[in-house]
Amino acid sequence: MESPLLVFNDYGIYCEVANVYLDPWKPVDCAIISHGHADHSRYGHKKYITHHTNVPIIKYRLGDIQVSGVAYNESFVINNVKFSLHPAGHIIGSSQIRVEYRGEVWVFSGDYKLEQDGVAVPFEPVKCHAFITECTFGLPAFNWPQQATVFNAINTWWAQNKAAKQTSILFGYSLGKAQRLLKHLDPHIGTIYTHGAIENMTAVIRPMVDLPATIRITRDTTPQDILGNIVLAPPSAHGSPWIRKMVPYVTASASGWMAFRGARRRRAVDRGFVMSDHCDWEQLLTAITYTGAEKIICTHGYTDIFSRYLRSQGFDARTEHTQFEGELHEMDTKLEQEENL
Fold first, then answer.
1. Residues 310, 321: Cα–Cα separation, whole Å
2. pTM of the predicted model, to two decimals?
3. Burial of 40 (0-12, 13-18, 19+ CB in 10 A)
4. Rounded to the nearest 10 degrees, how much is the dihedral formed by the CA atoms of 218, 221, 227, 230?
5. Residue 166 DSSP SS3
6. Which run of H or of E encompasses 100?
7. Any idea which of 21-30, 212-221, 263-272 has the lowest mean pLDDT?
8. Which pLDDT does position 262 carry in this prediction?
9. How far apart are CA 100 and CA 73, in angstroms?
10. Contact, 107 vs 97, CB < 8 A?
11. In order of start, what are the domains of the chain with their CATH numbers?
């Protein structure tokens, strides 16, 4: 029996015909990278291929690497296998990876979302025979509110805190979530301050996206400087000595996990806003329908539940283990500690 075009092994998702890996989690000779989050773009590969807007991001995070950038929908061939990258809508520079060989087409989604956020190029459906999908939020309980509703709530929260003479601290990951938040904050309310990790990453992204002005918090910044304004900070800053200079402050987290009852309490924040850079349940199903694929491979998240539902709907669905962790907290925390202050 002929082996599948893409297989999962100890190093990652492997295309044997091309001798290429997709988002490998161990060092390999050639890696095609879907996006810049730490769990998908790891250090140690001999050669990286990614979307050109992701090149400066992974070079900033990984250092001196051999990387080449390609445009969306630009085909490149390795050992007679045709590859192309297509917008995933997850964060800036994020891609789905299309693989074609002898008329068979597979698509690895990476991480993705369908809602347009004003920063990432919107998700583009790609027809295929087999679709590898994440299902981080693959439960019917996850149903995202409209982005405009969420940002209206965030800006109202900030304005109310300012009126109460309190500083607003809003937590979001330094790559992707922070720039999405920044894009939609209302600078007429006050000044937007940033933690060093977010300021550093935003500086990499600014040449590619129009974003409001920010001020980096330094050792010279005083509580009086930031009082009534808003601070964007990574989750790793919560509870750290860095945050103590913000008193009096109120905190909030922008995350899909805020849809879970009790998540705000567990994360010890005052307010939770439901906003994710991943698909909710309906968006996952919609994306899969768009592809026209019959074979679905579910990775990361509620894989068993989601694949079982897909099988009940007539799909040939199964699960595969990966080392992808969504917005991987531990690795991003380490990066954020190293990048800043």
1. 17
2. 0.93
3. buried
4. -20
5. coil
6. strand 95-101
7. 263-272
8. 72
9. 13
10. yes
11. 7-141+278-339 (3.60.15.10), 147-273 (3.40.50.10890)
Longest dimension (CA), the chain: 70
Count Cβ atoms within 10 A of the Cβ of residue 44 and give its class: 0-12 exposed, 13-18 middle, 19 or more buried.
Answer: exposed
Structure tokens at 326: 């969504």
As a whole number of angstroms, the distance between CA 183 and CA 296 comes to: 34
Distance (Å, whole) CA 165 – CA 171 = 19
Query: Letter for the amino acid at 125?
Result: P
- Using a 10 angstrom Cβ sphere, with 0-12 exposed, 13-18 middle and 19 or more buried, the burial of residue 101 is middle
Please state the separation of Cα 12 from the chain's center in Å.
Answer: 19
Q: Render pLDDT for 92-109 as a digit per residue (tens, 0 to 9).
A: 999 999 999 999 999 999
What are the backbone angles phi and psi of residue 233, rounded to the nearest 5°? -140, 150
What token pair was written down for 117?
A: 């956020």
Give the number of other CB atoms < 10 A from CB of residue 192.
Answer: 22
Alpha helices in the chain (DSSP H): 55-62, 147-163, 177-184, 196-205, 223-226, 263-266, 281-291, 303-312, 329-339
Q: Is 311 helix (H, G, I), strand (E, B) or coil?
A: helix
For 269-294, the DSSP string reads -SEEE---SS--HHHHHHHHHHHT-S
Report d(CA 127, CA 333) in Å as an integer: 36
